[in-house]
């Protein structure tokens, strides 16, 4: 079944009215339509459908505490509307929020709403509490009042923190391993204590934390070893029928997972199923057939899919098989008729459009289509993932960049890529690549790796398979320190270089410069007089501490190149605004040796990989001629045995070695730049030493130059 494009958490199952009755499904889409339907004899039967309006950002069920939660609430723009299970509207509450509602939670008469940075709590539609968050809020939840006896809201914030509130104040913060995108009560009720919350992160991690009155108690955490997508939705439901509720997870790469709690406390992955689009909402219940539980998922473009526990291949005599086949035949013939009718309708509409477009009073209409895009830094391989999901099938995606970037290989990507030569000199055009997608591809994932210090814009031109041809352009900023990621803390014992700025600038101005330089910094100027952010370089593991206030900024890093990039970019930004900066720096000689020691293992590994890959063809030729490779040394035999994996790894990391060479060269130039010496003439000599891959020789060269 398909509705319009759906946002995260916009599909729910209404509680069953009888003892064994099937449940009705209610879903809200971005056309503003709420659809409620049930399934009878394998066909969807609509209970009610509202008229289109503003797009629906969230859909929740509510009702008086300890009664069936069968009232439907939707958040559209800054308004909350309530409907009965029959579709009659009983509430229209216009909030005082200036932005659109992004997240909503309902508990009895309490309504919890979040816009980008603002949290509001209402009771019986009267304003109670307000909180301004330091970073974007992705989801909101409240611990069950009947178990905890007090209202405890929890906000999932983009800066890898869960903020626990008490009234309008922050009670404490819970650090989590990635930006949390979704929250759910454990077991649907917060567990035995009512204090247990499950969170899912945008980098695919899952965890359970107990929110007590004074401090958080982490219970378990599951990493993302399989490199799957971010988590968008969570539900608890006993689908395996063992009396213990299982964990249902929907991810943004279309993977649906079932985790069960066996003897251990930690959940174990029992089943997974791949859909072709991101899963926006997931629910467990009984929908299609009485007595058989199923999992219902709604995807980005509005498809609702059910996975059932009902056996598909029926056991029994030939009579039952015949009955099933007759049922199937009638269903197939009705679908064929529907398809023919739709094809006729499309032809008629196309003719009508052709005639109207050729008339003298013709108005060309550009068909609108929605795109769900995500541009995020992956910590594991220091690359950016660009995910484009389109309402209709994608025809082509053209990627253009005005800074040098590498396109990396993605296993899930079946599109054909072709590169066009581009002139980097007059137009600053470094990359031009076209991805041609196979039919029915609605989701495309690309991976790129940038070079720190080179900043600009990456553009994606998305053309879907719709008539008339139309295209939308999406822009993504590649920042000067693009490979840095926010972190909760850093190692203060490392040798650090310091850059200090002083001048006539406001807190908002220096904050805007930091936003320009570094990813994952909230655009809104932080509250208070000063702020400290910590970062880690995902490629090298070096770190950065930035502390600033009105008129002063202090940046510390164990990598001289990071300080050098910041100095160049910040002085350029200040010059643009005609602000005089007093720049001072304190360089720690030990930090260069420390950074080289961090780079060296990576350099050694990549050089060895490159050597092995260069030997593969020659070794294979020997194998063909000799027919037997027993005479080869074990190290060469192992290269032949692992040839496919080595080639695969080498293909996935193009230009990895050149990037490491570039970083060491930059480090060498930057070290002497701060001393006022130009050492560019010594770079060829440095490259010769790098080819030799001798760590001590390299450190000696840096110190002697």
Keywords summarizing the entry:
Methylamine Dehydrogenase, Chain H; 4 domains; 5-stranded antiparallel β-sheet; 705 residues; 6-stranded antiparallel β-sheet; single chain; Immunoglobulin-like; Double Stranded RNA Binding Domain
**Separate helix tally:** 11
CATH superfamily of the largest domain: YVTN repeat-like/Quinoprotein amine dehydrogenase
Overall tally of structural domains? 4
Estimated structural class: alpha+beta
Estimate the global geometry from the Cα principal axes.
globular
Tell me about this structure.
With 705 residues, this protein is an alpha+beta fold. It folds into 4 domains: 6-225, 7 Propeller (Methylamine Dehydrogenase, Chain H); 371-472, Immunoglobulin-like (Sandwich); 484-587, Double Stranded RNA Binding Domain (2-Layer Sandwich), CATH 3.30.160; 590-704, no CATH class. The chain contains 11 helices and 42 strands. The strands form 10 sheets. A 6-stranded antiparallel sheet has the order 37-39-40-41-38-42, covered by helices on one side. Strand 11 (118-123) and strand 12 form a beta hairpin. The protein starts with 10 loop residues before the first strand and ends with a helix. This is BBS7 protein. Residues 589-702 form the BBS7 helical hairpin domain. Residues 484-586 form the BBS7 platform domain. Keywords: Coiled coil. Residues 11-309 form the BBS7 beta-propeller domain.
Give a short synopsis of this structure.
This is BBS7 protein. The chain is α+β, with helices and mostly antiparallel strands.
